[in-house]
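# nightly structure sweep
# worker-07 picked up a monomer target from the shared queue
# config: single-sequence mode, recycle default, output format = structure tokens
# input follows
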Amino acid sequence: MTQVKISGKKMINKKVKSIDGKDLGKIQNITADYVELKHGGTHYFIPKLHIKEFDKEDLYVLQTKDEIKDKYERDDPPLPSEIKEAERSGQGYEGYHEVIPFMAKEPDLQFKGKESGDILTIPWEDVIHKHVRTVDNEDIGDVDKVGNEFIVVRQGVANIHMYYIPKQYITKYDGSSLWIDVTSGLVSPKFEREDEPTQEEIEMLLNEVPD
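# output follows
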């Protein structure tokens, strides 16, 4: 498997297989929590965290087809409680490359540009895999996910660092990079985490956002 960057729009109609190589159909829809697949008259609603690998032709779910049929074959989307259970069952997947972009439950990023003072609206799909640069013009990695309150930046391949950066630190988007109002030396101490920050940590970070 190769680590391939691919946008959400290009995922539609991609073929998906189970970990035992069986066909699950094609992607019909991507939401903030799950991917909808259709195979003939069968629908699967699979939490996004289970789809991890891409071999330039097909996507793969890290479960067998029997497991997928048992858990995710249905006619209606999963309940929030079922998504939470799926997240718990996905523990241990951290070593795999996540290929379905996380989509914030809000449709766009909106914030006031520090330089222009204008309200900037940026579709989430435009910033996935874009570079992130600090105020001292250092590239600290690419946007891996977009949450409601923060972006997740992934740096490195073998030695991976994950930064959870509140959106309020974003000062500019030039089409290829997001710029944040923090120096490169403070990125790791302030934002690096192994797990998603708690609400208390998010509020603490928001209180530290420069005026």
